[in-house]
Design brief:
The chain is an alpha/beta fold. It contains eight helices and nine strands. The chain starts with a strand and ends with a helix.
Amino acid sequence: MARKILLIGATGLVGGQAVGHLEAAGYDVRTLVRRSSGRTAKETIAPPERWPGLVGGTGADVAICAIGTTMRAAGSQSAFRAVDYEIAVAFAGAARAAGIRHMIAVSSVGADAGSRNFYLRTKGEMEQALIGFGFDRLDILRPGLLRGERGAERRPGERLGIALSPVVNLLLRGRLDRYAAIDSDKVAQAIGRLAELVEKGTHIHHNRDVRRIAAG
């Protein structure tokens, strides 16, 4: 019997691609969305504040959080935190309470709860909260700048970074590789591979790990 996947973030860059890879692998994929994603997964459309109450009825084996926004799209630090911390943590908590033992979450390179940078601190605090729930297996992906079609949501600095990434990536070797740009589809492929793993523990995956896992 195919494992059941419950995913939030299906309307986003990585989440949308992950749905495709998971379904191609034969998983029963269900998503919680606030608007239709246009994907083929079984969608439940509801406002995010209702998502935790809907988790228990899905019978999912693996919970995946690929939700995230940008400061530009959010408009304020509080609005950004409401998505990247509050929604993510509420979803993870509901998943654990429902008996889901495997969680996969997309974070960011440099995530650190002690960082002075608001973005990285928020991501780090999200990671800490997920670790605290005590999942049997927790996979946290920390990709660098994501390359992929995100449309007008891209900030000018991001667009420039992506344009320069082929050259910059050549300079980011060794441990610095984790800061290189990475194709969003590689991250999505890695999510698809990670969903089948059962080895217990908390696993942090940077760019090099993501590429290796995606390649199978």
